[in-house]
Amino acid sequence: MPDPGSHAYDVKRTRLRAQYDDEGTRHTNDGKADRAANAELERDYPPRTLGDPDRAAGPRGERGGSGAGGEALTLRSTAFVDQDLIPAESLELGPPLEWTDTTGATAEYALVCEDRDADDAVYWLAVGIPKQVTGITSALALPDGAIAGHADDGTVGWRAPQPPVGDSHRLVFRLLAVDRPLGLGKGVTPAQLQEAAEGHVIAHGTLVGVVTR
């Protein structure tokens, strides 16, 4: 299912617009073909909210992943609001994050940061966050017991994002609440987190921040 605003969604809209023209409607100049294509897409692919479990399902955000938790956690930052620009000073250390968990069944947390505009590559992750913790002051100040893992490119720990000059990237922060200790140690990879969390994510939260140069 393509998300509104995605490349796949735009391609489908272009094809639908051409299809209406080919069927003899010839509405290009008055915009009716455009409106008809948009109406069909909105009917078949309604916009989804950030809390939709199908949008932020597994540890890597897979749609419909079996490790998804049905409940939503409230994930927020004192440095920026959802879908807004992350201040430069917060990017150096990693933005502060805090959350509210009402499940009552969390054993520990994991945090994952993905770059939505770089094929959802995992940019940073932390595992083993104790269940009593309700936030971090920065990605470089993890609580006792928590461990920073490997990103997809092999680096460990947070480093300031550097998108291409003139380009903006969306960083997706995901908080996963799991129902048992995952037993992941130093050097954990995104794939290992995904495997360990499969079937044990009872809730999750998502926060999106924008970085630009």
UniProtKB/TrEMBL annotation:
Belongs to the UPF0098 family. This is Phosphatidylethanolamine-binding protein. It holds the Pfam family PBP. Residues 1-71 are annotated as: Disordered. Residues 9-63 have a biased composition (Basic and acidic residues). SUPFAM superfamilies: PEBP-like.
